[in-house]
Amino acid sequence: MLHTETATGETFELLKTLMQDKEFTNFYLVGGTALALYLGHRRSIDLDLFTPFPFDSETVEKYLVEKYNFDSDFRRNNTLKGTINNTKIDCITYAYPFVEDICVSDNIRLYAMKDIAAMKLSAIAGDGSRLKDFIDIACLSVKLSLSDMLEAYQKKFEHCNAISPIKGMTYFDDIIFTEPIVMMKGIYDWKKIQKRLYDMIKEENTVFQSFPV
């Protein structure tokens, strides 16, 4: 059962509509909104729709404009970004292997939790500026141990070293702390998030009992 309360009604209705649209059969929800639907930990309103297959972004853009009044912000080969009724939507080809099978719940197709964990660790190891990535990894600790997440990371990104995300989890200088955060359970407290990240590294095989709020 998905935590649909984490998305606004308008966003979730759009997601359901796109999931039933035959033109989006091979697109799957990923990122923070997918994770929020799994965990119910925070509000998330963007739709990241990834496909393992190449697609004609110009054709998809035209279709979305005509059917959904899509407002395009960015388009290039296999990438399309914009908004539909104030909901930000990204359509991207993402050819990395799946760690686990696609999950289908309430007619919504989502990347599995381990795949999302691997992608969040990759973001932290790479850019390391998005506060939500750190919060999401900390909250994921109630479902997966860090050891589980790192195993998924190395399966998805075969040539990447697990040391990079571990270092990234304790490097906070690049984080943009002005990013608005709305927690669904408890009150956002960076110190608690930070402590959980350190605890995850100390207790790599531990699945924690509660969110760090």
UniProtKB/TrEMBL annotation:
Pfam families: AbiEii. InterPro entries: AbiEii. This is Nucleotidyl transferase AbiEii/AbiGii toxin family protein.
